Amino acid sequence: MKKRVFLSLFAFASFCSANAQSYLGYIPDNYAGVQGVLYNPASIADSRFKADINLFSISSSVGNDLYGVKIFDVFKSGYDFDLEAKKNFSNANNAVFNIDAMGPSFMFNIAPKHTLAVFTRARAFLNVIDVNGKVINDITKDNSTSFPSATVGSANAVGNSWGELGISYAAVLYQKGQHFLKGGITAKYLQGVANYHLQATGVTMAYNENLILPQNSTYTTTGSVVYGSSQDFAANSDLDIDSKSKGFGVDLGLVYEWRPEYTADRADINDLKEVNKYKLRFGLSLTDLGSVKYDKGVRNNYNLNKTITQANYDSADNFDEFLKNNYPNTVVNGDVKSYLPTALHADVDWNIHNKFYLNTNVDLGVVSKTKLNQNSIANRVSITPRYESKWFSAYVPLSYMDYSKQAQVGLGLRTGVFFIGSGSIISNVVSKSSRAADFHLGMKIPFYQKKAKDQDGDGILDKDDACPEVAGPVENKGCPWGDKDNDGILDKDDKCPDVAGPAANKGCPWGDKDKDGVLDKDDKCPDVAGPAENAGCPWGDKDNDGVLDKEDKCPTVAGPKENAGCPWLDTDGDGVLDKDDKCPKVKGTLANGGCPEVTKEVIKKLNDYSKSVLFDSSKATIKAESNSKLEEIVKVMNEYNNANFKLEGHTDSTGSAAKNLQLSKDRAAAVKNYLIAKGISADRLSSEGYGITKPIASNKTVAGRTENRRVEIILVK
C-alpha cells in the first residue's frame, strides 16, 4: 500500500491524450451546417443552408492502449479494472480523452458566394504519452514485492481546457465549368480555463520498505520533472478563471469539387443552391494554429535526485506541496503558454450514386508530442459510407486511431433538427476488449435553401429571367428572339425578315429557274431540270440502252440493265455466258452449268490437302501450320462452284469411343466452318464424324493411328 502513494507523481491526468476529430462521421455530411467549420472552415460556402443555428452539441471520446474492457461492464457497480480488464502494459503507454461542446452558434449566407459563421465552444484536451505502464501496474499492487527499483522514463503530460469564440468566413474562390474551389478561414478568441502540464526526463525510482517502522520506508528517485499549471493550486485550490488568460487561434481550409454534370446545357448547375453538384469532393484544412497564455501560471523544474521517506510524503497535504517540500526546484518562467493541438485534415468524398456517399478521412498531428505543454491529436484514418438527404442522414464510420490501436465501427443518424452518433458503438457492443469509446449529439435549427425556379425551363432561373414564362436565350435575358418569316433566322440577323430564306443567304431565298430543287447558284443547267446529284443537269444515255450513264458501267456499249448496261460476256470461252456460268473463270461444260467435272483426281487432291490438316491434341482447334493446306482446298472448291462436298471426321482408337465420335464431329465441323469463313457457300458443305469406326490403317502402330486421325472430303452427287 505504501508504494502506491508515489504513483501520483506520474499518473497525472490519468494517461489522457486528445482525440483526432470530434463528431466522427457527421462532419463530412453536406448538411452538417455550422459544425463543419470546426473541421474545415471552407465547408460552409455554397452550402445547402440559408442559415443554420446550433442550439447545443457535444462530442466526447475516451481511449487507451492499457486496458481492454467490455465497455458496458465499466458502468456496473464494483467494476475493478485491475481484476476484470485485459491489460496491455508497455514501456510507453497512452490513453485518450476529449470533450468538445458547442454552444449557441450560427452560420448564414451574406451573398451568393460568401458565408459567415459565428460559434461558441468549450473544449478540454488531456494528453499523457510515453508512460511506463509496467511500472505503474507494479506500483498499484498492494501486495507486490517485485518493485525494488524501476525506470519510470520520460513521460509528457498536458491537460488544457479553454473556451472559444470564433468567426469564420468562407467564399467561392474559383468557378469555371466542372471545376469549383472554395476557401475559408476561422479566427478564434481563446479564453483559458485551466492547465496542468508535466514533463519528466530520465526518471527512475527505488523503494526500500521498512516493515518495522513503515514511516521510515524510503523512496530514492533520479531525474527531473518540469511541473506547471495555470495557477498556483497549492495556494488556492479553487479554479480561478482569469480574463487575462487568453490567446488566439486560426483555422484554414480549402475544398475542391469536381462537378461533371456541368455542361453547356446545364451551365446553371453551379448556381443551384439546394442540390448537391459534385461527384468528387477534396478537402484540406489546417486547424488549431495558436496558443493560450495563462497570466497567473506557475512552472517549476524539480530535481528528483534525492531519497525521501514515507513520512515526508504523508506530511504533505497535496501533490504540489509534496514536490515543494521535498525536492529542490527552480522557477522556469512566470507565466504559462499552452499550445493548441495543430492538425492537418484531408478528406475525399465520393457521391457514389444519388444520395449514397463514401468519405475517406485522414487526421494528422503536425506538432511534436514531446514538446512541453503541447496538446496534440491522435492520428486517425476513417472511411464512412453514408446515406444523405435533406431531412435525414445515416452514416457508419469505420476508423483506426494510433493510440488505441483498434479498428472501430460506429453508427450515426441525423434527422434535420437532431443528430446523434458514435464512431465506436457497434464495435463496443461486439468486442469484449474495447480500448476506446466516443459519442456525439446535438440540437439545431436548419434553414434550408429553397429549390430555384425556372418556369419556362430555358436554363435561366426566374430570378434572372426577364421572360420567366417564355423560354429564351441567355443573351436576351431569357426572352426569345423574333422570327417573322419563321425561317430560323432571327429577325436581328435576317436580311429578308418577311420572306423565308437560308442562313447561308442571311435569311433571303435562293433562285431556282427550272424548279428542279437545285438553286441557281449550284445548278450547272439552270434552264433544264435535273437531279441534284448531277448538279441540276439531266442524266444522259450515250449508248441508248435505257441505262443512264450514271448507272451504266459500259456507257458507250449497249447492254442489258441486269448487267449494269454492259453486254454479257463468256470469260472462260466455254460457250456459257457468265450470267449463266457457275464457274465463269474456269472452262466447263454446258451440261455442268459451265463448270468442269469433279474427277477422282480432284477428290484425291482435296484429300491430300485435308489429311495434312492438323489439330491440337484431343481438341478440334486447327493448328496454324494447317492454314496453307486449307487455303489450297478453298482454291480447288472455288474452281468447282456447282459441286457440293461432305467433310468426314475420323479418329484413332485411343480413348473412349464416345469421346472420339464427338471429337471427329467437332473436327469435321471446324474444317467446314473454316471453309465457310473463307467464302465457300454453306449450302455446298456438310460435315459428319465417325470416330473410330472407319480406320484406314492399323491402330496398333503410331503410323497407323496417325493415318486414322483425318478429315476426308467426299463429293456429294
Keywords:
single chain; 717 residues; Porin; 60s Ribosomal Protein L30, Chain: A; 2 domains; 23-stranded antiparallel sheet; three-stranded mixed sheet; 11% helix; cell outer membrane; calcium ion binding; Bact_OuterMem_StrucFunc
Layout of helices and strands:
Blueprint: E1 49-64, E2 67-68, H1 81-84, E3 86-87, E4 95-102, E5 105-111, E6 114-129, H2 133-139, E7 149-153, E8 156-176, E9 179-208, E10 218-229, E11 246-258, E12 280-294, E13 298-303, E14 306-309, H3 310-314, H4 319-326, E15 329-333, E16 336-339, E17 343-353, E18 356-365, E19 380-388, E20 393-395, E21 398-401, E22 406-409, E23 411-414, E24 418-422, H5 425-430, E25 436-448, H6 600-610, H7 627-639, E26 644-650, H8 657-677, E27 685-689, H9 702-708, E28 710-716
Parallel strand pairs: 26-27
Antiparallel strand pairs: 1-4, 1-5, 1-25, 2-3, 4-6, 5-6, 6-8, 7-9, 8-9, 9-10, 9-11, 10-13, 10-14, 11-12, 12-16, 12-17, 13-15, 17-18, 18-19, 19-20, 19-21, 20-23, 21-22, 23-24, 24-25, 26-28
Helix pairs in contact: 6-7
Protein name: OmpA family protein
Organism: Flavobacterium sufflavum
Domain OmpA-like: 602-717
